[in-house]
Amino acid sequence: MKGDRIEVVIDAGGTTRTYEIEATRAGRRVDVTHGRGVVEVTETTRGGTPVRTARFMAGRVLALVEHPAPRPALDDDAAVTRLRRSA
Question: Does residue 14 lie within any of the structural domains?
């Protein structure tokens, strides 16, 4: 869905680098696959055609964070109760 994004943090030899891959248009999605030492993040169309692809060595990936686009609340969604901080 447009607005979905994935943030990839990698080890760049003493420092870290952050990359963001985002679904830029309506109907596109962001897919993550991993295997054989490679993490691949791809933005694809509804039909499954890849638009952009980013590949990272799995040994260098420190974090992979998915950020879904904000979606409107539905009528049947339960109310969220906040956690209380203990003293």
Answer: yes
